[in-house]
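Checked the freezer inventory, then went back to the computational side. Two predictions to log before the end of the day. The first one is the construct we discussed on Monday; recording sequence and tokens without edits.
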Amino acid sequence: MSMQEIYDWIDAHAEECVRDLQTFVQQPSVSAQNIGLRECAALIRDMMHRDGLPAAFHELEQGPPVVFGHLKARKPAKTILCYAHYDVQPPEPLEKWTHGGPWSGAVVDGVMYGRGSTDNKSGVLAFTKAAKAFLAVRGEVPANLKFLIEGEEEIGSPNLAAWARNNKELLAADGMHCLDGSMETGTEVPDVSLGLKSVLFVELVARGAKADVHSLNFPLVPSPVWDLVWALNTILDRKTRRILIDDWYEGIWQLGPDDEQQLVEKAVRVDLGAMKEEWGISEFALGRDGIDAIRARTYEPTANIQGMIAGYTGPGKKTIVPAEARVRLDFRLIPNIQPAAAVRKLKAHLERHGFGHIEVHAYEDAEPPYKISVREDISQAIIAAATEVYGELPVVNGVSAEGAILRHVWIPCVLTGFANPGANLHAPDENIEIDKYIKGIKYAAAIMEHFGRMHAA
């Protein structure tokens, strides 16, 4: 069957789709601060009900509810697990927002502004509005659709894994994908990521005296801030940015012919100059460029310092040796670096270098990294859908997606996004261009259609 009628319906109901996204964005839902989560879950559940879609709360042992719905096709068909999240990043710094602030949902010159407009509330509605379009036009969906919309993705989904372990049958599917993020800078086509760089969050804490001490006494007391600086200097090589922790790269993913070909194709199509311009830099770190820059971004493990917390930084001066210092890091782990093993290696590294007294607080049950083949049905369906909707092949990445689920129910999973470059994910003035959002709904519908057609094959 032709998809044109589906696309025409989406265009005819664009105003409704925009209005619902505005309402969704206007509901705060910050998981890091436990703000508005249950209210936002109720909002999307009620929106789905109004659109004729099944949706119910599944309560977690802790944390906000998962919104889950199963919409069955009339004929035998493959099943897609449509994963998304309704929580968003904290909006701070608030003074950097324009157009009414982080919860305005204001549309200015064809662009909607607000936290979650791209990450990931437009992705949630792309799934649901695409399904509604099929029901309105055909009276049925082309594949079995399972909607899973959670509220803790932005803090690492700490409570989702236990729920997934107890609901394996509910989650069973032939393919899974997430509509989250933006197109590659300098292109007008989606990214298609065939895997996940896991994120391991770690906080290191150094302690000294029982309270802040006058800095006159610096020669006699421990300095937690310097301890952290010295410890951090042992983790990453300054010249190469290679992680210096013993055996960190053990068993790391080895690129095959498909992976190398994807890098070559991406290097031809992606405008790295536009990426530098977007970030306001003249060159990439270590002078990387071309395929080397793309390979590093895709496949290189990282050790990033998010921020340091120590001492006094207010007005004036305060002559103290701080009693405590903290640093927050995120390690990007590519396949096959497992989070729990990485934590053990980090602790052993600090001990060997004389920093065994530094406390290591880590979420050892973080999502594991994963990788799938471009030849999987879900990969091929998404590539075909992107080509149909956007008029050319998408940019395919080896790894970039929800590991908390995949740990208990293995499903070939793809991450792809449709928002405009410069969408300011995780930053003030997060936004989405309205035409990109409407096309993203068509993209979601095309993925459902192409995956559904694979049953006959």
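The second is the one RB wanted added to the comparison set:
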Amino acid sequence: MKHTIFKRALLIMSLMAVLGILVYEARTIYHTPVAKGTHRTRTANADRLVRHLFSLTPTPDRVYYQNKVIVLMYHEVTKAPPDPGALRLTNFTKQLDEMKANGFRWITMKEYTDFILHKAKVPDNALLMTFDDGYESFYTDTFPVLKAYRVPATNFLITSTISNPKHIGIRKLTWDQIQQMHAEGIDFYNHTNDQHAYGYSNAARTKQKPLLMGPVYSKKLGRMETEDEFKQRVYTDLGTADKKLFKHLHNDRNVLAFPYGGYTKETLEICRSLGIDVTFTVKRGINSPGQTNGYRVNAGGIHNIPEVLVQYMKEGAPLRPLPFAQGPNQAS
């Protein structure tokens, strides 16, 4: 009997050692500099290796977590990603296939806020899909896929950029496009009106921080803001965004995603005074009732591997980083 137990323990240790070697090789493939022209080959080899590790038999009837919700965070999802932070549409589709095959259940923002604020029931393996910034590609590329898979989702808008031809940068949505998608089940909430940026956090203008994280240097005033001026700026901006959202969509609740995940105790107090009872950070984790400042898992990025993401979700979205699937969990 002791000999059998010893043999089993030895086998388990051997398997763990082999897995460790494979993981090390995968990391090496991804992070070792390569000669020009060989990057694609090494990336393809890494993809095959990691998929071999994580492409397990689907478990659609298994319960991974109960009375909790994982919130996924995306930015641009498009056919041709313009930068490393964007996710290729084909990979997004693979993610949805993996989620569906493994028994995850998509919920709406209404279901999520009722769960957070009122302990309403959610299905096992509940999952909320969120997108930031309101890129036009959400309408042209992402929305048709969401519609085909019948996936509810929320997009957090920088409202000053909507239907704004003078906006500099990647083209954003129009209110007509937003209203069309809203009529078909997509929700839109607050990502500030015009505070999606960094500001100087000292008079010497040598340090920066997100605009919702405290007083910044005011070019107009020629000095640092006072604490009261900071609070008034944030109050006015967030209130303006919610008024625009109500005007165009008649939202019956207020939800905010902090740009870059940046907030302070004072910012949260301003949110509550405006009736914004549910907010989101960019911190990894899983949400339980009462977690009004929610966690989100970054599911985007050019190097995302759908199988790894879903395996991470099956583990209940622990605070450790996703292996191979993405870089640091920093997002706008």
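For RB: The chain has nine helices and 15 strands. Residues 1-54 form one domain. Let me know if you want it refolded.
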